[in-house]
Amino acid sequence: MKRIVAVTAGISWFLAGFTSYAQQTTAAAFNLKHCIETGISNSLDVNQSGLDMQRSRINWNQAKLNMLPDLNGTASTGVNQGRSIDPFTNGYINQQVNYSSYGISSGVVLFNGLSMQHTVKQNALAYEASKMDWQQAKDDLTINIILAYLQVLANEDLLVQARNQADLSKKQVERLEIMNKEGAILPSQLYDLKGQYAGDQVAIINAQNALALSKNSLCRLMNIPYDKNMKLERIDAESYAVKYEDSPDKIYQESLQKFSLIKAADLRRQSAAIGVKAVKGLLYPVLVLGGNANTNYSSAARNDIFLGTSDVTTNDYVMVNGTPSPVIRKQSNFQSEKIGYNQQLNNNLFTSVNLSLRIPLFNSWQVRNRIKLAQLTLKNNDMAAATAKTQLQQAVEQAYITMTSASERFKVLMEQAHAYSESFRTVDIRFNAGLGNSIDYLTAKNNLDRSNINLINAKYEYVLRTRVLDYYQGKQLW
């Protein structure tokens, strides 16, 4: 809100200047829309606010993705030498074994006190708040560029006025020099007009300097190189100098609905309230559904293939009629061969599904302290939102009072300029006819010049004030 107060408090003389790029021709006049778009495109503050908005969007997307099941795979391979466990038979072996194992697992949280759902809402509101901050940065820059643009136009009008004053004084000096040579006037009248002409030339220098400074200020707002020859598209300021119909209360109520700073504060307050619920959800049990699949390979794995049976004479014998006879038994014959890699992976595949429940009983009061911190954040955001609304109301009331004063001053100065114009016209006729003196002429001329300068300043000041009130209401400013 400091930026709001700064905008309304210091509008007597505003930031200034618009300029074309150094590479562009200065013959063309640039309009207000081009100035604003260029400033927003080049502004560091606006671009940084846009990056913050993108970060908030990523956080929101991640909160939604956290609700999806996870999926992880594992793979390992190695070599065992000496006495080790055969990963195929789980028996002891004493040989070199090459082994590999693979697995995949997945799990999804079925319930955790709705903490994840609340976190999604919290981040969604935070993202909306960051969008309002981005819009506020653009609005702040927009109003400053508009004020600067109008200040350049005001300084251009003041320079034209100063040159007109000097031209009039120069013509009078030239006329009086002729009359002085002829002895038709007092020399003091000529020197009075020469002094006035010198003062008018100083006024031109001052007006040129003010115009250059205002252009330079606008260039800084647009973050582009300064171009002293830049030209701006003229705006009919008098068409904007109409009575402002809205009341302060109406402006304030409208600004509560449209002003980005207020909307951002409300969204942060809502986000903090949801954040408290998200942390409280951590007090509830967590139910997780999981599953996994695993398989392995061992170079020691062998497969025995049955080849058939054969008769084998043993060392045992039996006595038949007193004669020993050898015992013959059947023997199964096998051929051992290595089990293939793919076959082992298929044979050793196993899967499991599990449902787990984790009940938080005691965790050093971490969750309860996080709840207290979240509640403090909520209170802070509540106070920030209330303060923002109060400051906005004060700023609107101040801007309206200043606008009303500028409007009344503009009306009075119009009447004054008309009166001094008629007065100078009469004095000028008498002076040119030789019936008046230089003192009366200079007094009338200075009064008219001063009233014209004040009228130009008042006209643009009133337009500036009305633009500020439109700014608070979120209206289109150009």
Structure description:
The protein has a 4-stranded antiparallel beta sheet with strand order 2-5-7-10, with helices on one face. The protein has a two-stranded parallel ribbon with strand order 1-6. A two-stranded antiparallel sheet has the order 3-4. Helix content is 60%, strand content 19%. The protein has one domain: Outer membrane efflux proteins (OEP) (Up-down Bundle), CATH 1.20.1600.10. It has 478 residues and is α+β, with helices and mostly antiparallel strands. Residues 1-27 have low confidence and may be disordered. It has helices at residues 2-9, 32-42, 44-65, 115-181, 187-222, 237-240, 248-258, 260-280, 341-347, 366-432, 438-472, and strands at residues 29-30, 70-80, 83-85, 92-94, 97-111, 231-232, 286-298, 302-320, 323-338, 350-358. It is built from 11 helices and 10 strands.
